[in-house]
C-alpha cells in the first residue's frame, strides 16, 4: 500500500484497509478518513494515533477491552493470533501458562482491563517480567500505558501494510 492509493480510496475501502490495525476498532480509521489527503504514511499514522489519544475515556477503555488476554484462549483476530504465536505464547509450558493466567487475573482484578503489551520482538519470559513489573503501577499509569502499547501494536500492523519488507522484529529485511 502507498499513501497516494490510500488518499484516493473511498471511505469504506479506507476503513476496510486500516480498520483492523486497532483491534476490532474501525472507528479509528473512520475518524481520520475525512482528513485526507495525508502527505505521508507517517502523517496518516500520526493522525490515527491522535484519534485514539483524543478519544473519550470510555472510547479508549472500549479499545483496551477489545484486546485479547495474553496466552489465553478465546476469540482473537488473526493478527493477534500471529503476534501471540511469534512471541511463543501459543506454546507455553504448564508452569508458564499457569503463571501467565495468574498474572492476567491479578492484573485484571487490580486495573479492571486486560494487560496490553506490544509483543513484536519479545519473548515469553520478557512478557512475564513486564506483567509482574506493571502490576506495581497505578491504574492511571496503566491506562495510559495500555493506550500507548495499543498504538505500538497498531504501528507494527500499519508498517506491515505500508512497508511489507519489514521483518517481524520491526526492522527492514536484510538490515
TrEMBL record:
InterPro entries to which the protein is assigned, alphabetical: OHCU_decarboxylase, OHCU_decarboxylase-1, OHCU_decarboxylase_sf
Reactions performed catalytically: 5-hydroxy-2-oxo-4-ureido-2,5-dihydro-1H-imidazole-5-carboxylate + H(+) = (S)-allantoin + CO2
Annotated ranges, domain Oxo-4-hydroxy-4-carboxy-5-ureidoimidazoline decarboxylase: 7-158
GO molecular function list: 2-oxo-4-hydroxy-4-carboxy-5-ureidoimidazoline decarboxylase activity
Pathway membership: Purine metabolism; urate degradation; (S)-allantoin from urate: step 3/3
EC numbers on record: 4.1.1.97
UniProt KW keywords: Decarboxylase, Lyase, Purine metabolism
Any single biological process term in GO: urate catabolic process
Record-linked Pfam families: OHCU_decarbox
Major enzyme class: lyase
Protein name: 2-oxo-4-hydroxy-4-carboxy-5-ureidoimidazoline decarboxylase
Gene: uraD
Amino acid at each position: 500500500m502507498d499513501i497516494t492509493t490510500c488518499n484516493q480510496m473511498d471511505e469504506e475501502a479506507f476503513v476496510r484497509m486500516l480498520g483492523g490495525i486497532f483491534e476490532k476498532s474501525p472507528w479509528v480509521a473512520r475518524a481520520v478518513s475525512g482528513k485526507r489527503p495525508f502527505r505521508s504514511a507517517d502523517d496518516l499514522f500520526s493522525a490515527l494515533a491522535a484519534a485514539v489519544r483524543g478519544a473519550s475515556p470510555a472510547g479508549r477503555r472500549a479499545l483496551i477491552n477489545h484486546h485479547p488476554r495474553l496466552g489465553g484462549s478465546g476469540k482473537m483476530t488473526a493478527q493477534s493470533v500471529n503476534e501471540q504465536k511469534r512471541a511463543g505464547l501459543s506454546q507455553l509450558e504448564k508452569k508458564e501458562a499457569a503463571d501467565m493466567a495468574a498474572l492476567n487475573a491479578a492484573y485484571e482484578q487490580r486495573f479492571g482491563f486486560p494487560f496490553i503489551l506490544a509483543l513484536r520482538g519479545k519473548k515469553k519470559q520478557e512478557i512475564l517480567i513486564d506483567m509482574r513489573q506493571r502490576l506495581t503501577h497505578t491504574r492511571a499509569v496503566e491506562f495510559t500505558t495500555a493506550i500507548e502499547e495499543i498504538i505500538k501494536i497498531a504501528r507494527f500492523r500499519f508498517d506491515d501494510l505500508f512497508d511489507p519488507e519489514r521483518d517481524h522484529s520491526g526492522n527492514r529485511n536484510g538490515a
